[in-house]
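Minutes, structural biology subgroup

Action item carried over from last meeting: produce the structure token record for Annexin (Zea mays). EB confirmed the sequence was re-checked against the source entry. Recorded below for completeness.
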Amino acid sequence: MASLTLPPAPPNPRQDAIDLQKAFKGFGCDSTTVINILTHRDSVQRGLIQQEYRAMYHEELSHRISSELNGNHKKAMLLWILDPAGRDATVLREALSVDTMDLRAATDIICSRTPSQLQIMKQTYYARFGTYLEHDIGHHTSGDHQKLLLAYVGIPRYEGPEVDPTIVTHDAKDLYKAGEKRLGTDEKTFIRVFTERSWAHLASVSSAYHHMYDRKLEKVIKSETSGNFEFALLAILRCAENPAKYFAKAEYFKKYKKPLAEAIHSETSGNYRTFLLSLVGPGH
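Output recorded by EB:
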């Protein structure tokens, strides 16, 4: 007779807070315990742990982590304990700051988020940093790249699966006229289609374009545009065609032909490596 396997008891955020405090208080920080607790809790649970920690020890967990850990491990752990919108806002703020400017990273985050995620992210950005995301985008970007990002964070796009085939065909024709058919590129048309349409719609436009003109839309973007503008358009298109590409571990393997865990192991070390490997989990 098979033995009955009980589901694991849900983690107790109060106990987690106590265990974290013990790990901090020892001779040197017990980083392994900190990693084991925080990497095996979801976003909601991590939020509850922080509430408990604040209530019990009258200190923010983030402050304690900041004083106990260091280097990339500290940076990664401080991002990990944030909710997704807080994490996005924090990374964006750093990517849009003069000293740590990384427009590719900023573009990647913005262009791979849904309209509802962008809305929450914008609110969080303002609440945390006292300035509008749009202001920082406008200050640090330029040209068509700037126009596209500002439109992408500002236009409330449809998020459902329904697509109107007539509009899809129309958009495919417009993109053809704006790019391959003419000398030079009409960037305004690319910006309009890519910032006003849903991911499902854009995926259909890409398919229709290939069918109608025997050329992949991705190749058109690469030949007709350049720089950060090209990078942004490709990020939007790839998310529309395959959102998993930006988020799933299996996609890493398909692209780079080696497991993500193997790459982490070869590129990192110490507690930072342990932390990242814990997030990836076994079998990757």
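Discussion: The radius of gyration is 22 Å.
Next step: EB to file the record with the rest of the batch.
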